[in-house]
Amino acid sequence: MTYLTLKTIHIISAFLLFGTGLGSAFYKWLADRNGNVEHIAITNKHVVMADYLFTTPTIIIQPVTGVWMTHLAQIPLSSPWIAISLGLYIFAGLCWLPVVYLQIKMQKLAEQAVNTHSALTKAYWRMTRIWFWLGVPAFVAIMLVIVLMVYKQTGAI
Q1: Cα-Cα end-to-end distance for the chain
Q2: Band (145; pLDDT cuts 50, 70, 90)
Q3: Is residue 109 scored above 60 in pLDDT?
Q4: H or E, element range at 17
Q5: Which residues in 63-96 are b (16+ Cβ under 10 Å) and which e?
Q6: The pTM of the whole model exceeds 0.85
Q7: Looking at residue 57, what is its pLDDT?
Q8: Among 9, 64, 71, 155, which one is least packed by beta carbons within 10 Å?
Q9: Contacts of residue 91, Cβ cutoff 8 Å, sequence gap at least 6
Q10: Angle between helices 56-72 and 3-34 (to 10 degrees)
Q11: 139 C-beta neighbours (distance < 10 Å), count
């Protein structure tokens, strides 16, 4: 595979990773603010589905294409911008793993509330707060990785 093909896949994958994360967070936040339990349940279901369909594959594609490109370009992984990017990426991933667990739990709690015609539990709202606050540093880390990718060749980093 050529460097430009890998770069194209890498960039498209980054867009999907970033966009899915931001979109999911935004729509879940709106649904939770709305308070409609059925709407919340459906949105949680879609957030979990989006992670399964888009986020998980891009989380795999990003490091594979990135490391492959560094190999083709003969750039050492110890280069500062690459090492920092990998560190930030790992950090974001460590935030994301509990988020996935929480999303699945929140989806089940919301579906249970719909099925029993009851309000969402305090556990749901606690998980929502944890989900949000794990998402913030992960989101910032991914944004910083993108900044590092853009500025890598300018000598600014």
Answers
A1: 28
A2: very high
A3: yes
A4: helix 3-34
A5: eebbebbeeeeeeeeeeebbeebbebbebbeebb
A6: yes
A7: 96
A8: 155
A9: 137, 138, 141
A10: 150
A11: 16
